[in-house]
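We emphasize that the prediction below concerns an isolated chain of 430 residues; any contacts that depend on oligomerization or on bound cofactors are therefore not represented. The input was used exactly as deposited, without trimming of termini.
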Amino acid sequence: MKHILFILFLVFGFYSLSAGNEVHRIIIEGVINPAATAYIKKSIDRAETERVELLIIQLDTPGGLMDSMHDIVKAVQNSTVPVAVYVAPGGSRAGSAGVFITYAAHIAAMAPSTNIGSAHPVFSGQGQPADTTMTETMMEKVTNDAVAKIRSVAEKRGRNADWAEKAIRESANITETEALKLRVIDYIVPNADSLLVVLDGKTIHLDSGEIKTLKTKGAGIISYEMDWREKLLDIITNPNVAYILLMLGIYGLLLEFYNPGSILPGIIGGISLILALYSMQTLPVNYAGLLLIIFAVILFLLEIKVPSFGLLTIGGVSSLVLGTIMLFDSPLAYMRVSWQILISVSGFTVLFFVFAIGMAVRAQQKQPETGAEGIIGEEGVVLKTIEPRGMIKIHGEYWQAESEVRIEQGKRVKVLQFDNKQLVLKVKEI
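Result of the prediction step, given as a token string:
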């Protein structure tokens, strides 16, 4: 019994030591948005709960939303587990918001052939009047706030605050070699395993006041990916996806309104519209662009009822294209709808409504084929001499008919007119 207890003690003791010698790693690729924020926060909470040695955030980003960046920086600073930001693999970058996140980390490292910088904030000015003076003043305030934020973080981490300010005011951008020389980062390493080797024995001062000495040599790296919910949120916050969802929502609801009871278009449209609205609350949406898209749809629908000789369609196409261009108010390419998506969706929309309008116009101009009006132009046979009235047979039906001249029984006649009051057909002999 004593031997069994001794073995269990050794096993649990070894497990405790090895559990503390674990390193977690997450990978952030793409725009910094609410999905990335939630992913990083969850990863920090998990690392704290499991009391691991280190959390590595492998980063490759062109930048992202200021609010999301602030939330990530705050979470990293308040972490009770050391956080390392590692810009990798080769060819990656830490742009814009990525600069702030790298500076906030307890350890900053980059892989060969990477770069960091271009952190000038972008002011979208959505919903604001086109006042140049006001926009410049607001831009200056946003820039000064960003500079104060990053200088504070840089001084706390012992990094180059002057270059950080230059990255914001002048959009400076440097390679990993220059970053190491300027004390922007701490290490250049080819991979995560090499990072663990150089970090072994390093003393980290956490913001809580705790001092921790890392034991990372030979530590096991456990990588975590986004779950399905975080991946979904990351996908739909892409401006291109948000725009497509918006158009699908509009199409679906319109089809449901014009074909009540079809159900499926309404369900797809409703879900798409809700997802699009969720996406747009996280993106720099220009509401003038959104209104132009809605106005374009209204013009397309009016074309069916109003004989504008194509003018409403032209106006709708112009409004749609302009609205799409203006929809996301940002000079950054990754925060706007791509030209490929714009042309494809706009072209599909135009073809869809032109086809629908053509079908509606043809339906209105088509001669009736059923009912009393549909019998005009039909041919029949006289069953009872018309003088001036008689009886004819058309497609197996018997009708009272009249003519200005006598038509003998057995003659073929053609219907000219229908007297709705007397229910009599006016005919002529063929």
